[in-house]
Amino acid sequence: MQLTHEHEEIRNTVRRWAAEKINPHVERWEEEEIFPAREVFGQLGDLGLLGLDKPVENGGLGLDYSYPAVLAEALAAIDCGGIPMAIGVQTDMATPALARHGSKELREAVLGPAIRGEAVCCLGVSEVGGGSDVAAIRTTARKDGGDYVINGGKMWTTSGTQADFCCLLANTSDGAPHRNKSLIVVPMKTKGVSVAKKIRKIGMNASDTAQLFFDDVRVPQANRIGEEGMGFVYQMEQFQYERLWGALNAGAMAQRAIDMTVDYTRERKAFGRPLLDNQWVHYRLAEMETEVAALRALSWQGVETIVRGEDATRIATMAKLKAGRLIREVADGCLQFWGGMGYTMDNHVARIFRDGRVTSIGGGADEVMLQILCKFMGTFPKAG
């Protein structure tokens, strides 16, 4: 896909912003295991970066999906994975269904503030015992008058301790698992919403992750996104964006690990010559860069598919599967060339090693990606 001057301006803007406003604070936010989301999102809102492909009437720029794809890659300039991930949740995971299917009133109340960076959004899909298996979620939303009364819990919720709104998937009937769910916007200050705990992780530390409980939480039925019973379908649509975002960002993180490792091995000497002069080192780095370029080509094929208005599920699934495995390979391989320095907590390649691991888990585990692909191939065993 031919990128324009406007695409490159977004990339350059993000890099400058990351260098000046974010990276000087990353070490502290990693230690504190949280970053000030409203402050950071406010800066991004002022730069016009939170609604690149969102409706103009809600404050977005109305551009095609290639622009947020560039943003996903550019965010790898941040010295950790947690902050980009939280931004990706805001732009490509919690709000696509709202932008596409939400009512005018709901978009004005929630999407507009999210685009301006005045509100933090989180996504409530995964549960204890129902992560990658979305059809198995148990949270319910029963009708009572003009309201929904929600009971249940959500797990692994990015920005869950700071969010203003949750885009929640719940069972709104007793029908078939793929037709009984709805997406509902829940203001986090609603009575009955509680943060059970903030979850400690082995990576993505600057991003807060929460377990949420919903105890007789009452919200208007007008907070439902689109049609009742279409939540599973809407969430599958959102997964296209989430998985492509993960592939684009992970690929850019992997490339950054390679670039940093080239610089380090060029300067670091062993046995009287730069490490980079060893054939195994420069050959291995060339192999890894080739794999990253292939991932990027696949990811951008998915971007082009979305821009054409076509379903990108198959390509997004492939890209996400490849990204999760490749960033593990690249980070591990690069870390080895750093020697003991690579095994320290403040090393950026070591942080990519820790942060990148979740790519094979979040947004659907590798095994689920394989199952989806086998269904496309017609090789998945038929039930019964």
Description:
With 384 residues, the protein is an alpha+beta fold. It contains 11 helices and 10 strands. The chain has helices at 5-32, 37-46, 66-74, 82-93, 96-101, 104-116, 231-267, 279-307, 313-337, 348-355, 366-377, and strands at residues 121-124, 140-144, 147-158, 165-171, 181-187, 193-198, 209-220, 224-225, 269-270, 273-274. The strands form 3 sheets. The chain has a 4-stranded mixed sheet. A 4-stranded antiparallel sheet has the order 2-3-7-6, with helices on one face. Strands 9-10 form a two-stranded antiparallel ribbon. Helix 9 packs across helix 11. It is globular and about 80 Å long.
Q: Structural class of the secondary elements?
A: alpha+beta
Order of helices and strands: HHHHHHEEEEEEEEHEEHHHH
Walk across the major sheet and give the strand order. 1-4-5-8
Strand percentage, roughly? 15-25%
Q: Count the strands?
A: 10
Span between N and C termini? Answer: 44 Å
Instruction: State the helical fraction.
Output: 40-55%
Global shape: globular
Number of separate helices: 11
* pLDDT < 50 stretches: none
Query: Sheet with the most strands?
Result: 4 strands, mixed
What is the residue-mean pLDDT, rounded to a whole number? 97
| Rg over CA atoms | 21 Å
